[in-house]
């Protein structure tokens, strides 16, 4: 359902942790054991600062940095030929709770069946990290996940957990299925979960432990214990405690593991106005600064904007400040499903969560729950991943590479965005989402965007209508001197396309000009129902998402899609 088309093409030689690293890049292999060609390649990469500490912190560094980091990249296609390979977009959700979470209730199979029925191809079970979960839950949930994989082979079901990041908010951590998936998650949670740490720890000690936890996951991949591990920070602006320097440090700790954050939180049903809903804030973003919050964040950061997190929704804001550094950092959307809107079940009677690490299976109550804040997985938000095949590895590789676009309420059916040398019309050429196109200075490039408009109703029962598409472009400025920077000066909406058609495919081409300085671009679109000038002013974002008002924030009345970025850099 709604997977777009198998027609995106990548020129990537991605070698990041989803598969085996080339031996030259795998620092766990001693130099003495390398073939001479690999040894010389490693010496070159180390000398260029592209391996070891801080490696891959940027797509800039030197020519070849993206390649050395295992990021998708292309060279100037003119004269060089282009690799071909189609992608299939697989919809998923990496943030879902079950009866193994103290504040949730459903079986793994309930969430998986519903997620698949609502159009998902993959999902991640992420019960909360806690003493009970570390002791009991990681082991106990695994047989349910394994059974679900057998019962629903057409759905990829990953095991993960929601990590209490030391000194910060929460994150999804998940691993490639395999014989060590439970062992690695259990060791990770026992050593690094914030709920398990001494209360006497300082903030600096906890921040260092968060970095160490991400590095631990990368080591498990390099030691071949697991075939991949990924980290996404969840609801990053909800409480103001994920400071900009922490986000940068997570990514730099291991860019093959720490790859992004939620561009929009789950809990979107919490905004449905009373009396039909709880009349709260989308995402439960109804907080104010606390002593633990980063003091620099404005009050507007504690609310959603068109359902999206302030870090993502603000053009020229925190996400853009990372992209302008050349940091590969991606956005997703998820359900964060715990207890779902309009459901008619409750926790099984006689449950003892502390003793058993789970609630008994849900039972029918006959009461319609209008106060729940969540939707079933796939019901409202989708993370669409460009995958080379239907497999666990392909989904992880697509996420790691940033071949991802996200939407709410099935706003569009499919999307294909790429940047190419102007006029290069050899098939579907160009660099896809998450990629890096390297061309000579002075070369003209263009964005080619194909969008399949929605023609089937969403789960609220109406056909969403796309009204406007915005192209956002930012200059790449390189590393910031202050790691707590959360704005960037040269990112803005450069073009808006009004959409008048209501069905079929629309195609836009936008001339990006001759390359005189490195830049990136990203794309968003909206049904146009609620807009206001962006926080950094009309010259930056004349028609951005509107601030969501607590108590009057119907998630179906305001729909957006966002893509991840593409970079264009001189070679």
From TrEMBL:
Domain Polymerase/histidinol phosphatase N-terminal: 92-167
Stored InterPro entries: PHP_dom (IPR004013), PHP_domain (IPR052018), Pol/His_phosphatase_N (IPR003141), Pol/histidinol_Pase-like (IPR016195), TAT_signal (IPR006311)
Entries under SMART domains matching the protein: POLIIIAc (SM00481)
Example GO molecular function: 5'-3' RNA exonuclease activity
Protein name as annotated: Polymerase/histidinol phosphatase N-terminal domain-containing protein
Taxonomic source organism: Actinoplanes xinjiangensis
